[in-house]
Amino acid sequence: MPVFEVTRPETALDVVVVTIPALNEAASISRVVTEILRAGFDCVVIDDGSTDQTGTIARAAGAVVLRHPYTLGQGAALQTGIEWAIDRGADVIVTFDGDGQHRPADIPLLLDGLVRNDADFALGSRFLGATVNMPRVRGILLRVAIWFTRFATGLNVTDTHNGLRAMTRRGAMAIRLRQPGMAHASELLHQIAASRLPWVEVPATIEYSGRTLQKGQTNADFAVILVDLLMGRLSR
Amino acid sequence: MIGPLVLTLPMLAIIAYALLELKRSRLVGFAIAVLTLAALSFIWVPGIAARVAEVLQLGGGTDVIIYSWIGLLTLILLNIHLRIRQQMQILAALARQIALANRQPPQGQPGPSTSRT
User: Fold this and answer.
1) Which residue of A171, A214, B23, B52 pairs with A120 in a disulfide if CB–CB is 3.0 to 4.6 A?
2) How many CB pairs under 8 A join A and B?
3) Cβ contacts (< 8 Å) between A59 and chain B: which residues?
4) Which of B95, B105, B106 lies at the smallest CB-CB distance from A70?
5) C-alpha closest to that of A102 among A166, A47, A51
6) Which residues have C-beta within 8 Å of that of residue B105, sequence separation ≥ 6?
7) How close, in Å, is residue B100 to chain A by CA atoms?
8) pTM
9) Which of A72, A83, A231 sits opposite B82 (nearest CB)?
10) Distance between CA atoms of B76 and A133, rounded to whole angstroms?
11) Which helix or strand (DSSP H or E) is residue B39 part of?
């Protein structure tokens, strides 16, 4: 796995906080945190009730850690991170996966996307950028999910369920994730559409490995996500 | 006359339940109320059930009443599921507040810390 040398761009965005939801990521969290800190960004790891040493390792690597008392799900972890970053006075909040599938080198591209387009949300897109080792079935399911997202939200996105995003403080304050599990990614897009705040997509690279595929969403999770979204809609 | 009256009382209770649940889920609460009213009409005017059965090709009026009950129970189960989800969301919000209140700073830096990890 290559180590990327990233330099933080000179922008008016003073405080950039990278939030990393992590569940049993002891194997990868140290490298992820180290690279992000080296790039000059603040970093908070939300340990979602890990049973391994994820939190301890993240702290040793230099991250602030917020630990859920039990596993709530990635959506809840992101909401915790977003709230902490807002409280801390962040100008921009970046969401980043802890399993090493994202590249810190893409963070400056997201920030650049926000500034250049005067947008409140910059969404990483693997289909504008690149994927490494993506299984064919995953690609097909994602295409279906993208079509569904476009239909459901009206946002003409080229990717969905990509955890790499950046949002301004104003954008983050318009977001309140209620879906604790993986359906939060669709919920987030719904809330972006409802907020009517400007958004932009930025090319990003996703690197799949045996570990990320094992730990990440399974193909069957797409059905669970649909049920979660439906239940979320019924609860109104 | 006693039979319809005995069935009507729990039906009225279900309608009251549906109205109370409208706040949680408008769609489910409304569906429960409508289905219960339909079941009530089937009890008091059996001709309606027979007519519906004929249109839907469901056999007899009794079958329609049974299907209505099954639909009603399914909706009530769904509503209980939604209620549990809501409780889970409240618990999650509480757990997130605990996490936010117990920030663990990077190792070697001062700040509030817990001994959880």
Assistant:
1) A171
2) 79
3) 104-107, 117
4) B95
5) A166
6) A59, A64, B111, B112, B113
7) 6
8) 0.79
9) A231
10) 46
11) helix B26-44
- Which residues, including other chains, have CB under 8 Å from residue A102's CB and lie 6 or more apart? A96, A124, A163, A164, A204, A205, A206, A207
Place of tokens 């949002």: A167
Q: Are the C-beta atoms of residues B75 and B35 closer than 8 Å to each other?
A: yes
Over residues A156-162, the mean pLDDT reads 88
| Pick from B86, B102, B107: CB nearest A59 | B107
Query: A219 by DSSP, 3-state: which?
Result: coil
Distance from CA of B51 to the nearest CA of A (A): 32
Q: Is B113 helix (H, G, I), strand (E, B) or coil?
A: coil
- Interchain contact B83–A (C-beta under 8 A): no
Confidence of residue A185 (pLDDT cuts 50, 70, 90): confident
Instruction: Give the H/E segment covering residue B28.
Output: helix B26-44
The answer, for B84 touching chain A at a CB cutoff of 8 Å, is: no
- A35/A37 Cα distance (integer angstroms): 6
Question: Residue A3: pLDDT above 60?
Answer: no
- Note whether B51 contacts A: Cβ–Cβ < 8 A: no
Q: Does B94 touch chain A (CB under 8 A)?
A: no
DSSP code per residue over A52-106: SSHHHHHHHHT-EEEE-SS---HHHHHHHHHHHHHHTT-SEEEE--TTS-S-GGG
Residue A92's Cβ-side half-sphere holds a number of Cα atoms within 13 Å equal to: 28
Instruction: Say if residue A235's pLDDT is above 80.
Output: no
pLDDT digits (tens, 9 = 90+) for B37-74: 988 888 888 788 888 888 888 777 778 888 888 988 89
- Sheet of A92-95, strands arranged across: A64-67, A42-47, A16-22, A92-95, A165-168, A121-132, A199-207
Nearest CA in chain B to A82: B100
